[in-house]
Specification:
Blueprint: E1 2-3, H1 4-9, H2 15-25, H3 30-35, E2 40-41, H4 43-57, H5 62-66, E3 68-71, E4 74-77, H6 88-100, E5 107-111, H7 117-125, E6 130-135, H8 138-150, E7 155-159, E8 171-176, H9 209-218, E9 222-231, H10 237-246, E10 250-256, E11 262-268
Parallel strand pairs: 5-6, 5-8, 6-7, 8-9
Antiparallel strand pairs: 1-2, 3-4, 9-11, 10-11
Helix pairs in contact: 2-4, 6-7
Bound molecules: S-adenosylmethionine.
S-adenosylmethionine binds near residues 89, 117, 118, 137 and 200.
Length: about 270
């Protein structure tokens, strides 16, 4: 037997992380863990917790260990098949919702939906929208479906290589958080990113391969006056704006994230 306090202290992790993992392993909330430092745990619980602590010390992301991450106020299930939804991507949802304002029952497409985070948040906020969401990976689509059902969001989910399975379909808004890290970027070997699927992260030698394909293809899938809104890397803003202008998009603009980095690029077709 050991107490919570002794176990958390010996975890070698920041207290907040250790408490979160303990709450998950014991199916309790964090407040319970914090309020009961003297509680005694049995051998099985101790073994379960020690294993989680060891995996976290080895770098595994908390979201994969507990199987959840909150996004746009919604708790989503995540697995190592999908990117862990990021706070920056909430800005993608905000810009998309801003571009949908005043449009009734819009048709919306999210490319590369992963856990379904952006599509579920959008469908949740705009119940009148017809939201389609695609990904190249079938495993990802099953998880997105689960997250949509969890929040009562209606999504039309489709396996597609970008616009490959969308011939003839047009939307008032296309949004995406595509893979945009350059293949030689050293960040790929650091922190949580090491554990995330490469195909969700890497966008070719300059990181912009997927963005180029999406910006090019979206022109044939946007309804007149429709918007393309997408996320990009912190240093890619000027290149993304230039790309959209070269492809004939109007009202091209980029919005900065909370850290002050250009993050979400958007443009409208005529
Ligand atoms: C950066 S992740 C974004 C996931 C999710 N939308 C989010 O914001 O958390 C990019 C997603 O694009 C998908 N993807 C990569 N290549 C693709 C392709 N050729 N066609 C469609 N989806 C693709 C990946 O499987 C991954 O789920």
């Amino acid at each position: 037997m050991a107490t919570f306090e002794a176990l958390l202290k010996s975890s070698g992790l920041p207290a907040a992380e250790a408490r979160l993992l303990a709450a998950h392993a014991l199916n309790r909330d964090r407040a319970y863990v914090a309020a009961h430092p003297e509680a005694e745990l049995d051998e099985r619980a101790i073994a379960r917790l020690k294993e989680l602590f060891a995996r976290r010390r080895a770098g595994e992301p908390i979201a994969y260990l507990v199987g959840e991450r909150e996004f746009y106020g919604l708790m989503l299930r995540v697995t190592p098949d999908v990117l862990i939804p990021r706070p920056e991507t909430e800005l993608l949802v905000e810009r998309s919702l801003a571009r949908l304002r005043g449009r009734e029952a819009p048709r919306v497409l999210e490319l590369g939906t992963g856990s379904g985070a952006a599509a579920v948040a959008l469908a949740h906020a705009r119940a009148d929208a017809e939201v389609w969401a695609t990904d190249i990976s079938p495993a990802v689509l099953a998880l997105a479906q689960e997250n949509a059902a969890r929040h009562g969001a209606r999504l039309c989910l489709l396996q597609s290589d970008w616009f490959g399975a969308l011939a003839g379909e047009r939307f008032e808004l296309v949004l995406s958080n595509p893979p945009y890290i350059a293949s030689a970027d050293p960040h790929l070997d650091q922190g949580d990113v090491r554990f995330e699927p490469r195909c969700a992260l890497v966008g070719g030698s300059d990181g912009l391969d997927c963005i180029r394909q999406i910006a090019l293809g979206a022109r044939d899938h946007l309804a007149p006056g429709g918007w393309l809104v997408f996320e990009h890397g912190w240093d890619q803003g000027a290149r993304c704006e230039r790309l959209l202008r070269e492809l004939g998009y109007a009202e091209v603009a980029d919005t900065r994230d909370l850290a002050g980095h250009p993050r979400i690029c958007e443009g409208r077709v005529a």
